[in-house]
Amino acid sequence: MIKISKNLTFQVIVAIFSGILAGVFFPAFADHARLISKTFINMISMLIAPIIFFTIVLGIAKMGDMKKVGRVGGKALLYFEIITTVAIFIGLLTANFIRPGDGVVPKLSKNPSNLSATKDTNWPEFISDIVSPNIFESFANGNILQILFFAILFGFALSKMGSAGRHTIVAFENLSQVIFNMMKFVMKLAPLGAFGGMAFTIGKYGLATLIPMGKIMLVVYITCLIFIFVILNFICYLYKFSLWQYLKYIRQEILVVLGTSSSESALPSMIQKMERFGCSKSVVGLVIPTGYSFNLDGTAIYLSIALIFLTQVFKIELSVAEQLSAMGVLMVTSKGAAGVTGSGFIVLSSTLVSLKIMPIENVTILLGVDRFMSEARSITNLIGNGIAVVVIAKSEKEFDEEKYQLAINPKVAQEPVF
């Protein structure tokens, strides 16, 4: 029993249930719970930039081939676009089939002033912004794409120094180990973060808010499960690794995301775990950070379902052509969701503005339940990004089968060899 109680997975599960009870019986505690969760996520966030930087620099410096870096990046972006398109299509399909908006009486917020639509995505400007005029500011703001670009250049320059750069590589390896040791300490506080996040959600919004909007929540969760266990499972089958073993391997990260409603809370540990899973450091460093902007499968599912839900609630019939047009817009607007605070509403709002099918204020009917659906989309994002790393690593022959077997069968490493 003592051994179980020291297990991080067990501690996070207990913390989640404790948070639910605290939110139900002590709703006034919600503001304090938010600070607990926010502090934990901030501790994770402060490690994300240096971990990404050191991981990419060391991976490229040791690989030394920019053609290979470009090939890995190109494969990753192509894979992201295909998979997120499939996610959007499945979301539209299930929303049209189950029709979660039928029978819902719209109750709009009296104070929708906290909503604002983003501008339509300007791709030349988006690409230009990847190059930072001040990299220290990028680190301070946690701009992942700018850090990613700078790290690629830094790694390439370091690889060209040959033996002269060896001392720098050793120093970076030591610094990287220090950061990962910090991450291990922070992850021990994951139960507190999960407790605070769940207590805040239940305490602020209450379980009663789920009843009238239960159908859309059910559709989002069902669709995410279909996507994971059908689409992603099929991809795992094609690339000859087990979805179940993978999910078991990252169970702690899944529970942390469930408690905090933030996939970023698991980003540092996912980088380390995917390396242990058999993927090379360079592939992990390139694919996971990029995936947090371009491979948001859960967010894509949520946006497509929420859009159709709103049209059903407000009796707006969209033709097949209009839905395909909406799908095209979502393929663009969903890509910037990760870097936006309150991304669900802002990205959905920008989509509505682009399509010109209803007032932006209509989004406010989702305010009460959006937080309860963020767990589903965040977990789906997390799982999808990890699988993307394995796919790209295997396609590049950068996957270590022995590490994979040790990851899914840790007892094997402990057995004596005769």
TrEMBL record:
A GO molecular-function descriptor: succinate transmembrane transporter activity
Membrane-topology annotation of the record: Multi-pass membrane protein
Keyword Transport: yes
Keywords linked to the UniProt accession: Cell membrane, Membrane, Symport, Transmembrane, Transmembrane helix, Transport
Membrane-crossing residue ranges in chain numbering: 12-29, 41-64, 76-98, 144-164, 185-206, 218-239
The keyword Transmembrane helix is annotated on this UniProt entry: yes
GO CC annotations, alphabetized: plasma membrane
InterPro entries on file: Na-dicarboxylate_symporter (IPR001991), Na:dicarbo_symporter_sf (IPR036458)
UniProt-annotated location(s): Cell membrane
GO BP of this protein: L-aspartate transmembrane transport
PANTHER family associated with the record: AEROBIC C4-DICARBOXYLATE TRANSPORT PROTEIN (PTHR42865:SF1), PROTON/GLUTAMATE-ASPARTATE SYMPORTER (PTHR42865)
NCBIfam families (UniProt xref): PRK01663.1 (NF002461)
Entry protein name: Aerobic C4-dicarboxylate transport protein
Biological source species: Pedobacter caeni
